[in-house]
Write a structure and sequence with these properties.
This protein is an all-alpha fold and 51 residues long. Helix content is 65%, strand content 0%. This is Transposase.
Length: 51
C-alpha cells in the first residue's frame, strides 16, 4: 500500500513541515480507501503472498 501511495500521491513533493507530511499522507490514505478495487488488486499480486 505504501509503495502505491508514494508512487501516485506522495512522490516529487517538497513538504513544508511535519504537519504537511501528515496531511498529505492522510489525503493519500483517504484517496486509497475510496478505491477498494485498487486495494484488492494490490493484495492479489503474487509478491503479496510470499510470506
Amino acid at each position: 500500500m505504501w509503495q502505491f501511495m508514494r508512487d501516485n500521491w506522495l512522490s516529487n513533493r517538497v513538504f513544508i513541515d511535519y504537519d504537511d507530511i501528515v496531511a498529505h499522507c492522510c489525503e493519500a490514505w483517504n484517496n486509497l480507501v475510496d478505491k477498494p478495487w485498487k486495494i484488492i488488486s494490490i493484495g492479489m499480486r503474487d509478491w503479496a503472498h510470499w510470506f
